[in-house]
Design goal:
Elements lengths: L19 H34 L1 E13 L2 E12 L2 H21 L7 E13 L2 E14 L2 H9 L2 H5 L9 E5 L3 H26 L4 E9 L3 E4 L14 E14 L1
Antiparallel strand pairs: 1-8, 2-4, 2-5, 3-4, 6-8, 7-8
Length: 250
């Protein structure tokens, strides 16, 4: 075929059969569709984010009065003499008096156990003085009987037993795990009630829990100041827990 033969028509842009203006409009159309779709997705995402921000965080409280189920009483007593043997003998007699005291109150023999003893001495003007100390511990789940023993503790003093400072009954509630689930549920209900009041005031509705934090359980004396005097020497306790809950708002 000679050089004068006809060749296929070529658009100015160089692409076979596609004028430049057609290719430009096609690219612009694709970009426009992408921008519209991207704008929709971005807008929808912002709306969802705004909805997610609609939440209220409140605290829920649950309290329950309980009675201690364990009583422990550490009894410390001592005897002092310039004769070590005499001091030891006095402590032995005091031990027998204490054992008789609890036996008369109806405690079993194994409820009272020795927990320690020590001897100290000091010398003044050539005279050595010895102090023998003994500790016994009462452990019982009979709370009523333990209270009776404490009420009569001065009977020991009348029997010649010198009770040292620090001798006292301590009452403990050991069944916290048994009531934890119910108290957490109660605290959550209390938190939802507070959230519902807030939602009502803002013309909204309370949705699902977004997140929640359980505070620690506190066991305090039922009467008197929290954590103050009487928190251990009373069998009547108050268990308290506070939860922090975030609810979504509809």
């Amino acid at each position: 075929m000679s050089g004068d033969e006809m060749q296929p028509a070529t658009a100015p842009g160089g692409a076979l059969g596609w004028p430049a203006n057609q290719r430009w409009f096609g690219t612009a159309a694709i970009l426009a569709v992408g921008m519209v779709a991207g704008g929709y997705l971005l807008g929808d995402g912002l709306l969802r984010a705004k909805d997610a921000e609609r939440a209220v965080t409140v605290r829920g409280l649950a309290e329950r009065d309980v009675t201690a189920d364990l009583a422990t009483w550490t009894i410390s007593y001592s005897a002092t003499s310039t004769s070590l043997a005499e001091a030891q003998d006095k402590v032995r007699r005091d031990t027998a008096s204490i054992e008789a005291f609890f036996r008369e109150l109806g405690f079993p023999a194994d409820a009272l156990q020795p927990t320690g003893a020590n001897v100290t001495s000091y010398t003044s003007e050539g005279i050595t003085t010895y102090t023998v100390r003994q500790r016994l511990a009462l452990r019982t789940t009979d709370i009523a009987r333990a209270q009776k023993a404490v009420a009569r503790q001065f009977d020991l003093v009348e029997r010649g037993v010198f009770l040292e400072e620090g001798s006292g009954m301590a009452y403990t509630f050991t069944k916290l795990n048994d009531i934890k689930p119910e108290m957490v549920a109660a605290a959550t209900r209390d938190a939802r009630a507070a959230a519902e009041q807030f939602a009502k005031d803002s013309d909204s509705g309370v949705g699902k829990i977004r997140d929640a934090t359980q505070g620690y359980f506190a066991i305090e004396a039922r009467d008197g100041e929290a954590g103050g005097w009487g928190s251990a020497d009373s069998p009547y306790k108050k268990v308290r827990v506070v939860t922090t809950v975030s609810f979504t708002l509809d």
